Amino acid sequence: MNFLLSKHHQLLQKEFSQFAQTYAAPLAAKIDAEECFPTVTMDKLIAEQLMLLSIPRCYNGRAEELLSSILLIEELAKHCAATSIIVSTQSLLVCLPILKYGSQEQKAQLFSAFSNGSLGAFALTEPQAGTDVLAIETTAEKKDDHYILNGQKKFITNAGIADIYLVFAQTAATPKKKLSVFLVPSDTVGLTVSEKVSKMGIRGSTTASLTFENCSIPQENLLGTFDHGYKIALETLNFGRIGVAAQALGIAEGAFDSTTVYVQQREQFGQPLANKQHIQFTLAELQAEIEAARLLVYQAATFPTTDDHFSEKASIAKLFASKTAMSVTTKCLQLHGGNGYLKDFPIERMMRDAKITEIYEGTSEVQKMIIAHQLFQDAADKMK
Ligand SMILES: Cc1cc2nc3c(=O)[nH]c(=O)nc-3n(C[C@H](O)[C@H](O)[C@H](O)COP(=O)(O)OP(=O)(O)OC[C@H]3O[C@@H](n4cnc5c(N)ncnc54)[C@H](O)[C@@H]3O)c2cc1C
User: Fold this and answer.
1) Is there an atom of ligand 1 within 6 Å of 161 CB?
2) Is the ipTM of this complex over 0.85?
3) 319/242 Cα distance (integer angstroms)
4) Is ligand 1 within 6 A of the CB of residue 130?
5) Which residues of the chain have pLDDT under 50?
6) Which one of 1.20.1050.10, 1.10.10.10, 3.30.950.30, 1.10.540.10 gives the CATH number of domain 7-117?
7) CATH code 3.30.200.20 for 121-229
8) Can 15 be counted among the known catalytic residues?
9) CB neighbour list of residue 367: distance below 8 Å, 6 or more residues apart
10) What pLDDT is recorded for position 2?
């Protein structure tokens, strides 16, 4: 593993940093306060092909590696975590499975729509199926040349904004439950989207429920192989988890940067807070946590995706980076004193935004299950 970014990635990082400062940062407080979607920033991201960063040029993408998308998510999250999750969802949970499993027609049609500003959503979670993905109750029954979709999805990012939903549904119950993935257009008859929910953090991103009532889905809208949806879900979540890890890293970095400035400006006892060794040591500890998180995130983003340990690396990155985001934002808020508790300073929003990184795309407990499974697998392999 190369621990330094290549010249190319350094240049991209600079480009993304400038983009985030110019377009995402000025709107971050407003979209949080008003719970509104960052339309202006999204339009800019689309215009600069940043929503199709890791997609081949033949589909209007920029043909970059996964690491480039991760750098974009990190830079956006430094200033606006809500914008970063919209990008992460679209780039990693929507575009990547379409690229890998989509037919030529699906790819041509969807990437063309995405390059013109349309968005997708990844609809896996249900009221009774969160951590336990296989508890999914949404069904898709084959009828002539289409499928009839019935069920409910909960907590779907981009619901109500998206034009296409990647919907995971049960296509076999016995002897073993099997899932398949369907591309469901937002104007499908029988599909209703709930009011968006009001959230603690990432309030500029839209989260809502979906209900499918006898929705007729043409068989051409099956994504990938019939009954192989569970594999597609797990594979896709590996990428999504690195995206959330990058989001967590960016939140931690943003909190750290603003706090470093704050403690040099705020004076108590006749001198800047930064002169106190307690403050210096706190920041030094946080700097070390952030550096460690960054290495784990970049390691996961550059790890061979076909390697058996790819899931584990993604889970380690998410587990550690999300813990770092909580640790850094909580301690940085403390260093702001009473000001940290006010909406006037971004640290208050950053601390609220950090929490979700320990929950979505698999809670921290799920990441530990994956890591533990792999470590015992490795131990068993060593004994062979
Ligand atoms: C803002 C937001 C956006 C989201 N976006 C999407 C999206 O776009 N698409 C999508 O499909 N989903 C999305 N989700 C859903 C998210 O991925 C789930 O909320 C998450 O996976 C946890 O599921 P749950 O909420 O049902 O919690 P539960 O599964 O009910 O878990 C509750 C608690 O129990 C713990 N737990 C559960 N099982 C075990 C176990 N076996 N051992 C130990 N502990 C356990 C969990 O870790 C957690 O702490 C989103 C959620 C939120 C809040």
Assistant:
1) no
2) yes
3) 10
4) yes
5) none
6) 1.10.540.10
7) no
8) no
9) 241, 315, 316, 318, 319
10) 64
